[in-house]
Design goal:
globular, alpha/beta
Length: 659
């Protein structure tokens, strides 16, 4: 079996035990030199403007007569001119190199113009991602010391809400479109200068300012991400982090016949406040390619796909699960003969792919007869599909590899690694279910997790994934203690458990901390939710469970016996407590009470429990479910309730929305 990574040194001495250090084969001896003409994010954009001034850069859909219209575009030169004006307006408003500039809203051309204006003048872009939790925007404005903010129209009210006390520190607020008179008055009353987009552009035209490009070591962005303590943590990424990632992808793609070119088109709908979409867009700008933005309704994403016809489609597993579900449903509705033919063609093409044939040559006939219709559902031109944010099930990945007529691969990364730090090869079946080898400018090492039984010197090697290299963040903003916890001797401890395959690729198998991602990419802090739900009167104890291959949470609940018996009496049930716990009516009542608790505590929709198992016995040491201090042994809990959990997930309908 060919190898995709190289062992370059043995692990450090000491405890816990560590495995060897691995590098990408392209950097076996040393990291390749960086591009001297590409040292900052501003270089990425400005060089492309010179090379491709008339190429389509940013596209969006406008409403025409109440209906969403076709994509309209701005060229690289048009965007560049707008960036200069917005940057000049920021300087005229008092922004100085190093000032923090917030961007609050959905993906759109104005988001990118504001971001590039920050790069042009050595300003620090601070995305404000509103689904981090209640009060997150207020926290980030204060903690990030944000002085100016670009805001989507529908977010203005939230920013000016009295609860968002930190908004008062803003010197100016620029709406992506326009502001109402009431919004202007409200902003002015708390000391914020309000501007529409056109007003701010005009100010920049009237007050031109020379650009002040950054250095490679300057902060490019502070991206806030979920923290287990509740407060978001600010990940500091430099311009070198961004450009090193771009250079690494260039070297990665040089290995393959098919390259990304200026003709490629990307549909942007993953949040720009997250590193995956941001880094993909940076790479597209580097190539002089086109980025089209979804029109804001994630449930109507298929309409954008059909209109834009992208060549690259990136998403979280839940998106691809929806594609899989929709196609399987369509196959089920075929007559028996056509359904049987589809199955035969699937097995035939898969067999040839497993023998080493590229997907495009495994069975052109099967593609023509059956699978081109699947490709059509994704717009008809998709060449590459990337899944990130959480593990994609091997079943869905295999299905897409066979039926989409496109390359499909998974990547793995965090905000702290500036996007994907591993990426699977696009046409290697041996990488199915894995996230590929370590990237060109990073190194990887596995560290023992004895309490979970993961050993980097075992067979196969397993342990906490640690990475170091040129795309790793420098620190958590204003949090040296957390930085020291996360980075040891230059190694960033991800908290994810990886299994190293003999060919040097990684498979994500677990999470060290009780912070998980659901399949749509949202982080869930399990212990925090248990503390919230534990205050529900009918709840004696609760164990919340989430699976990265599922989109919803479930829980095992120990009901309060006294309250349960009162409920049973008032509802006409006379039975022992253990029998009551098997009643569907009681389960529905417990779910309704959990929902009320979630709503009272302003939990997000993905933090709501959607199914319960009622356990009449307290979690105890006799069954090895808890420690002597009554902490839940999560692995043991999962083993004990696995059968019931699997059945519960099968019974849940899940998310019915189609793309």
């Amino acid at each position: 079996m060919k190898s995709f990574a190289a062992k370059v040194e043995e692990g450090r001495d000491g405890k816990p035990s560590v495995g060897p250090v691995y590098r990408n084969l392209l950097s076996k001896n040393e990291f390749p030199p960086l591009d001297p003409d590409l040292s900052t994010a501003w270089d990425i954009f400005s060089v492309s403007v010179k090379k491709h001034p008339q190429n389509r850069m940013l596209g969006w859909r406008e409403f025409v007569d109440g209906k969403i219209g076709p994509y309209v575009w701005k060229t690289y030169k048009e965007v560049y001119d707008e960036v200069l004006h917005i940057g000049s307006a920021l300087r005229a408003s008092g922004a100085e190199p190093g000032s923090r500039i917030g961007i609050y809203g959905s993906n759109c051309p104005q988001w990118i113009v504001a971001m590039e204006a920050c790069c042009a003048h050595s300003l620090v872009c601070v995305p404000l991602y509103d689904t981090l939790g209640p009060g997150a925007v207020n926290f980030i404005l204060d903690h990030g010391e944000v002085d100016f903010a670009f805001v989507q129209a529908k977010k203005v009210t939230q920013l000016l809400n009295p609860d968002c006390k930190s908004a008062k520190r803003l010197k100016a607020m620029v709406c992506f479109t326009s502001l109402t008179e009431e919004e202007k008055d409200k902003a002015t009353s708390i000391g914020i200068k309000p501007y529409s987009w056109e007003e701010f552009l005009h100010m920049g035209k009237e007050n031109p300012s020379n650009i002040l490009p950054p250095q490679a070591y300057n902060i490019c962005t502070i991206m806030y991400t979920s923290g287990t303590s509740g407060d978001p943590k600010g990940v500091v990424l430099t311009h070198e982090n961004i450009t090193t990632f771009v250079r690494g992808i260039d070297l990665f793609l040089e290995q393959f016949e098919e390259k990304m070119t200026e003709e490629d088109v990307y549909l942007s709908f993953l949040p720009l406040a997250h590193s995956l979409d941001r880094t993909i867009e940076e790479y597209f700008f580097h190539k002089g390619a086109s980025v089209g933005y979804y029109h804001g309704d994630i449930n109507a994403l298929r309409d954008d796909l059909m209109e834009l016809k992208p060549t690259l489609f990136a998403g979280v597993p839940r998106v691809f699960e929806k594609v899989h579900e929709a196609i399987e449903k369509a196959v089920e509705e075929l007559n028996p003969v056509r359904r049987r033919i589809f199955g035969m063609l699937y097995k035939y093409k898969l067999a040839w792919m497993n023998k080493g044939y590229k997907q495009s040559k495994a069975s052109p006939l099967a593609d023509l007869l059956a699978f081109r219709k699947v490709k059509d559902r994704l717009g008809g031109r998709v060449r590459l599909i990337i899944s990130g944010g959480a593990p994609l099930s091997s079943e869905v990945e295999e299905f897409l590899r066979v039926t989409s007529c496109a390359f499909v691969c998974q990547g793995y990364g965090l905000t702290e690694t500036c996007g994907p730090t591993t990426l699977a090869f696009p046409d290697e079946m041996c990488m199915l279910g894995t996230v590929g080898p370590i990237s060109v400018y990073n190194e990887l090492q596995l560290v023992e997790v004895p309490e979970m039984g993961y050993n980097p010197l075992g067979s196969p090697p397993c342990g906490e994934i640690c990475v170091r290299g040129k795309t790793i963040f420098t620190r958590y903003y204003k949090n040296p203690e957390l930085t020291r916890e996360a980075i040891t001797d230059g190694w960033f401890h991800t908290g994810d458990i990886g299994e190293l395959h003999p060919n040097g690729v990684i498979k994500i198998v677990d999470r060290k901390k009780n912070l998980i991602k659901l399949s749509q990419g949202e982080y869930i802090a399990l212990e925090h939710l248990e503390n919230v739900y534990g205050i529900t009167p009918i709840i004696e104890d609760v164990w919340v469970y989430g699976n990265s291959f599922k989109s919803v949470l479930v829980a095992v609940v120990v009901p309060n016996e006294e309250i349960t018996k009162k409920w049973a009496y008032s509802n006409g049930h006379m039975a022992p407590f253990s029998n009551l716990c098997s009643l569907d009516q009681l389960k529905k009542y417990v779910l309704s009470e959990l929902k009320l608790t979630a709503e009272r505590n302003k939990l997000k929709g993905f933090e709501h429990i959607k199914g319960v198992i009622l356990e009449p016995r307290p979690f105890d040491m006799e069954r090895d479910l808890v420690t002597a201090t009554m902490k839940k042994k999560r692995n043991n809990m999962l083993k004990y309730y696995q059968v019931e959990i699997d059945e519960l997930y099968r019974s849940l309908t899940g998310d019915k929305h189609k793309i």
